[in-house]
Amino acid sequence: MTHDYNGIGSIEDLQQAAREAAGYADFGGDGYCEGLRVLLESYERDADLTPHGKIIARKMIIAALAGRLVSEAGFTEYPEHVDVPIERPIFVVGLTRTGSTALHRLLGADPAHQGVEMWLAERPQPRPARHRWAENQDFLRTDAFYRARQRNEADLMKVHFMGAEEVEECWRLLQQTMLSTSFETTAHVPTYSEWLARQDWTETYARHKKNLQLIGLNDRDRRWVLKSPSHVFAIDEIMSVYPDALFVRTFRDPRTSMASTFSLSEQGGHDMSKAFDRPTIGRTQLDLWARGNAHFDTARRRYNPAQFIDVDYQDFVSDAVGTVEKIYAQFALPFTDAARDAVVASHQASLAEHRRPAHRYSLEEFGVTAADVDAKFATTS
Predict the structure, then answer these.
(1) pLDDT per residue as tens digits for the range 167-186
(2) What pTM did the predictor assign?
């Protein structure tokens, strides 16, 4: 008899639902199963999921497994993906809420660059020419979903705008192995968090690379620009897979970035976990990101300083295009007229009213003081 994890479903049931959603059957091995089991046990033991939360958790897991199935089908259909070079990819890293999303999208605007668009993060496949996207059923389904979210979750979209065509974080690719901080930033899952903190991410990033090779099959000459806050936990593993990687580390006063992070976790969690109340959000997210910050600071010392650059949030806000130009200079990349024009246009578009943040937050709402943040970052630096 299979175990139904508190209304989310059994592992076998979730696997079958993913097969039906993806239209494929081969998961490419069972390396993801331990993480899935630990996550489900943590949802059941720790999270106190609401009825709505169980639906969200089930959908998140099925989406991750379906993405894995689609990738595996692509790996088989396009075996030549293994020959696609990935040279000097740029990883935008740093604490959450430090301007990393805006900077990532500006860097990705350069025609010589590419990022993982939302629809391809969810359904990895060779990227078609842009004018063919409207003919692709995966794009159309993703586009309809995010247009509905833009209408129904306008406040969240102003904090972090999402659309099918937008260059997005690549944590959805990491989810395919069930190693992802995304689960612990939307629900209280300490059993899973403790397990995740002990994992080696090398195989996860090896799969990450295979996905980039698949998605970029038709864009071999374009440099990858990637972003996820969780990359700070895996610098050694990233370097083992991408030894010539370039890192742009964004930073901001932790008091401000943590308060904004707590608020985003609350909104992004959609009240799915009753145990993920405000004091718990404050405590767990402060611990998580202070640890990630310390991990990054320690790991970077093992590598060539020329592969890293730090970007101050205030400097970026004051001169976004100038900040991009400094990054290009640090890494000896050509900031062509086409690149500048694209970056300027992207920056202007980001200032549109529907994307303008209307985000109010404070540490105290989440049971955290400025002194708590100062002490945590002082002891983890």
Answers:
(1) 889 999 999 999 999 999 99
(2) 0.93
